[in-house]
Design brief:
Number of strands: 22
Strand content: 15-25%
Largest sheet: 9 strands, antiparallel
Radius of gyration: 31 Å
Strand order of the largest sheet: 3-4-5-11-12-10-13-14-15
Distance between the termini: 44 Å
Number of helices: 23
Low-confidence stretches: none
Length: 732
């Protein structure tokens, strides 16, 4: 992903323990050298440097991460003879650092049960606050706004969902049982909690649902806007179908008469065939054999086809994908500053009595300090860069702590395990966020995007700040509103721009690599798509229901050379890294065919570019896959006397060349298209380090790229993921 060499060795397979020539020895040496040389590039990447710098600092600051406890003093006994067998090093995981920093010796004690009292009793005593039950408070809040019993029932779904957690224990560890002895509660499991439908609209002052909704869960709150116009069109179509059926049933009380008539003319002049209103089993013969009193069974039942915004998908009720919507508006971004860290502090989650301090708070305060320093002009560019890198490291520790404190499995060791307290904190946080968003909606806002730790509100800025000031005081969390332009598909895929639209501030999800490739993102497409689509969405922000504008897209791609003047950087943006799956169950290997049809076996990972048609040094790419045969397909072959497994020999030879000749039972080798790539395209494979190619080689690749085909990928990404549907197709 970072543009360095992709060199593999085929001498590392199981049983491959010999070399047969000096060339094979040279290849193996080259592979190992490449691995070591390029590991340095990864090590120096800011993402990893942030963790290493922070962890090195923590090791220097807290000797108890390295040394054993001195007796029962809760102090480190420093000396080479007292190094802990489980000492931490700079490459220990962030979760381990979070555990050990917060609690270097012994362990912290969890709450006996989930509780929605806030803040913690010890905090309330210090601040003079009164503890409040936030779940009950949220219900009172909603009931005060809305007297309509139907609306209250909708909120009560969420209330009842969270009420299931109150007073129960979700900590399955032996440490919990040791701490509470006879007072220990039986262990409840998340699978026992009923959570069929936890979706809730934000409601306007008149009780009508907003176009925005939220989904409550155990882990966090998410919400966005849905396509209400399309839903209303679909619903009107369904109502029309119901009315048509009622008219036809009145015209033909006996459905057999409709079947014999074959078609019917509706009041508005439309002519519909009998199949529109009768089921597939409505043959004349069968209907004549059926008692007239029982012929109602042949009418189609449209009642089950009523469109709904949310529908059951698996075990959960979720937004129907058909009504997904891309919001685009000037918003007030309400970023709840370090939401979880502040709530954890207010709940006294990680205070260590024996340590006499809350190191979680200390790391949080270091992050706040770095936030200021990284933008302070009194420091040099290099110093600010290092501050920014270390800041990313502090965020990793802070964010890892909640996961480390809330492992699901009972046998997972954690000195800071507190499943009940973390569960309480997460639910309280969601309820606080919801109440802020609902209060703003009541005042006329659209909450176009919701996360547990922030909202995007479309509302007059002054009114927005007034509501925030009141709600922030209730929570005890700092909330800083910031005006910005938002294009948002959902909680994970969004684009933020300056209010004057001159600068893209950030992008996430499927737009995250708009600036460069990253070792933390496993892209299934070239990063240039993220960049071009970000530009396109901002340009077309007021008309995201329109078909893709290829002229605008072509104009944007033409600016790539100016946007990425460094050829190596531009090559990274246009590269597409293809990865094979080498498991027996899901074997999937890339191979090529030359212009003459010759088979080309490729390595497991390959960097490819889309070239203009007919250029040399290109191949047509395919995937050799282990396709799983369905029971129906197997039975059909058996009945017809065919071979049960019918391997494509070319695909099988590719899989064998990759050491995958013995496929799992019920799978056969087949040739498939690689997602997002057409087999007709001329692809150039370049596994050398594009960052180190000679200038003329870099330019040769860049001038060979087929911009029209990259444009096809941009268009496809827009049409499939971001464009808002406007026409009501068949939903019945």
């Amino acid at each position: 992903m970072l543009g360095w060499q992709i060199l593999e060795s085929d001498k590392l397979k199981p049983g491959q323990d010999y070399l047969t020539s000096p060339e094979e020895l040279a290849d193996l040496i080259a592979y190992n050298v490449s691995d070591v040389v390029n590991l340095k590039e990864l090590f120096c990447h800011p993402y990893y440097q942030g963790q290493f710098i922070l962890k090195k600092g923590l090791l220097g600051q807290y000797p108890d991460l390295i040394y054993q406890e001195d007796g029962d003093s809760y102090q480190a006994k420093i000396g080479p003879a007292f190094v802990r067998k489980d000492r931490l090093t700079i490459d220990s995981s962030s979760a381990n650092f979070a555990r050990r920093t917060i609690c270097p010796y012994g362990r912290l004690k969890d709450d006996r049960a989930v509780s929605f009292l806030y803040p913690a009793a010890s905090v309330a005593e210090k601040t003079g606050e009164k503890q409040r039950d936030i779940l009950e408070e949220s219900r009172d809040f909603f009931y005060k706004l809305f007297e309509d019993e139907n609306l209250r029932k909708k909120f009560d779904r969420v209330y009842d969902y969270y009420k299931q957690f109150a007073g129960k224990n979700f900590n399955p560890s032996k440490e919990y049982r040791e701490d509470y002895g006879d007072q220990a509660l039986p262990v409840s499991d998340l699978s026992d909690v009923e959570n069929e439908d936890t979706n809730l609209f934000y409601y306007q002052k008149d009780g009508q649902p907003s176009t925005c909704y939220i989904t409550f869960s155990v882990g966090g709150l998410h919400g966005s806007e849905y396509n209400r116009d399309l839903y209303l069109k679909d619903h009107a179509l369904w109502e029309k179908k119901q009315a048509d059926l009622a008219y036809v049933q009145k015209l033909y009380p006996d459905p057999l008469d409709l079947r014999k008539a074959r078609e019917v003319t509706l009041p508005d002049g439309r002519v519909e065939k009998y199949q529109t209103f009768l089921t597939a089993k409505a043959t004349i013969k069968l209907m004549e054999q059926t008692d007239p009193a029982d012929r109602g069974q042949f009418w189609r039942d449209f009642s089950q086809d009523e469109p709904t915004v949310f529908k059951k998908q698996g075990s959960r009720v979720r937004l129907d994908d058909r009504y997904a919507f891309t919001s685009s508006d000037l918003t007030n971004h309400e970023d709840f500053t370090s939401y979880y860290p502040n709530m954890l502090r207010r709940l006294n989650a990680f205070y260590n009595d024996r340590l006499g301090e809350d190191r979680y708070t200390a790391i949080f305060e270091r992050k706040q300090e770095l936030d200021k320093k990284r933008t302070d002009p009194q420091y040099s560019d290099e110093e600010r860069r290092m501050f920014n890198i270390e800041r990313e490291g502090t965020k990793l520790i802070l964010n890892s702590a909640t996961g480390a404190a809330d492992p699901r499995e009972g046998q997972v060791p954690s000195s800071i395990r507190m499943n009940n307290r973390i569960r309480s904190m997460r639910i309280i946080g969601q309820l606080f966020t919801y109440m802020i968003g609902q209060a703003q909606t009541y005042a006329g806002a659209r909450i176009v995007s919701t996360n547990t730790d922030g909202l995007y509100s479309v509302l007059d800025a002054d009114l927005n700040r007034k509501i925030l000031a009141k709600e922030a005081a209730e929570i005890g969390v700092e909330i800083v509103p910031e005006e910005l332009y938002l294009v948002s598909k959902d909680s994970n895929n969004r684009l933020e721009a300056s209010p004057d639209l001159t600068k893209i501030l950030s992008a996430s999800g499927s737009l995250a690599c708009r600036k460069d490739t990253s070792p933390t993102k496993s892209l299934a497409h070239p990063a240039i798509i993220d960049w071009a689509l970000s530009r396109y969405l901002l340009e077309k922000r007021t008309d995201l229901a329109a078909p893709f504008d290829r002229d605008l897209g072509r104009q944007i791609l033409a600016e790539a050379e100016e946007a990425f003047p460094d050829p190596a950087h531009r090559l990274r943006m246009f590269q597409n890294v293809l990865s094979a799956n080498h498991s027996k169950e899901r074997a999937n290997c890339i191979f090529g065919r030359g212009d003459a049809g010759q088979l080309l076996i490729l390595q497991r990972y390959n960097r490819v570019f889309i070239y203009q048609d007919g250029l040399p040094k290109t191949v047509h790419l395919y995937s050799a896959a282990a396709k799983k045969l369905t029971p129906a397909m197997l039975n059909k072959r058996k009945k017809s006397g065919e071979a049960v497994i019918q391997h494509d020999q070319e695909a099988l030879s590719v899989l064998k060349a990759n050491g995958l000749g013995n496929l799992a039972k019920g799978r056969e080798a087949t040739v498939q298209k690689i997602p997002n790539l057409s087999p007709d395209w001329f692809m150039h494979v370049e596994n050398r380090a594009v960052n180190l190619l000679q200038a003329e080689e870099q330019e040769a690749i860049l001038h060979s790229l087929d911009y029209d085909k990259y444009l096809d990928l941009v268009a496809s990404a827009y049409e499939k993921n971001w464009r808002n549907l406007t026409t009501s197709g068949p939903v019945l």
